Amino acid sequence: MNVTLLCTRKTLDQYPWPRIAAVPDRGAHTQPVFLRWYCNVISLRRRPGLLLVHEQSLFSFLIYPFHSADVMHIRELFRSSLRRALSMESVSEDLLQVIDGISEIVVGAARNRSVLGCMNDIRSRYEVNVYGQYGHHELDGPLQSEITHRVNDCPWVKHKFYAHEEFPRQLREFVARNTPER
C-alpha cells in the first residue's frame, strides 16, 4: 500500500522530497481513502515538525521534531506516529497492523482548498494546546499523544463528526472489505 502525502508549497520547498509529477484526483483512482494525507510544516517551540491531516476525516497527528535528514525515514516516521495517535483512540491491534502494510510514501502537491483551510484551524489548535496549557512541559511522546487526542476530539460542526471517531471507522471498513472471509 502506498500513502500519498499532499504537501503545501512551503513543505515541498523546505524539504528535499522525491516527487511524482501529478497526483490523481480523489475520484480518479482506486487508492483507499485512508491513504491520502495532507502535510504542512508546523513549528512548535522553535523546532520544525510535520502536521499530517487525513483528507476525508480530518484526523491529524504530528511527526515532531522533523528535520531534512528525516525525509529518508518518512515511511517509518509516518507509521510510528500514526500508530501512536491511533493507540490514543483505543484502536485495536489488528487495525494497527494495517499501518505496517504501508510500503511507500508518494509526495505530491496539495490542491484541495477546503482541506488546507481546515489544516490551518488544526494547526491553530495544536499551537493553543502546546503554548497555552502545556507551555512549560517538554513535548515528548506521551504529551504529544495527549495533545493530538485533544485536537482530534474537537467537533467539526460543518462536517458533523469527530475526527477521532471518523478515521478509525473508515479504517475498520477498509479492513472488513479487504479481509478474506474464513
SSE arrangement, N to C: EHEEEHHEHHEEH
Adjacency order of strands in the biggest sheet: 4-3-2-1-5
Work out the oligomeric state of the chains in this entry.
single chain
What structural class is derived from the secondary structure elements?
alpha/beta
> Rounded to an integer, what's the Rg over CA atoms?
16 Å
The termini sit apart by 23 Å
Q: Could you give the count of β-strands?
A: 7
Largest beta-sheet details: 5 strands, mixed
Low-confidence stretches: none
Mean pLDDT: 82
Helix fraction bin: 40-55%
| Strand fraction | 15-25%
Number of helices: 6
Give the overall shape: globular
Provide the fold topology.
Blueprint: E1 2-7, H1 9-14, E2 36-44, E3 47-54, E4 60-63, H2 74-87, H3 93-100, E5 104-109, H4 113-133, H5 141-152, E6 155-156, E7 161-162, H6 163-178
Parallel strand pairs: 1-2, 1-5
Antiparallel strand pairs: 2-3, 3-4, 6-7
Would you give an account of this structure?
The chain is of the alpha/beta class and 182 residues long. Helix content is 42%, strand content 20%. It has helices at 9-14, 74-87, 93-100, 113-133, 141-152, 163-178; strands at 2-7, 36-44, 47-54, 60-63, 104-109, 155-156, 161-162. A five-stranded mixed beta sheet has the order 4-3-2-1-5, sandwiched between helices. It has a two-stranded antiparallel sheet with strand order 6-7. The relative contact order is 0.19.
Q: Which key features would you list for this structure?
A:
182 residues; 6 helices; 42% helix; 20% strand; alpha/beta; globular; 5-stranded mixed sheet
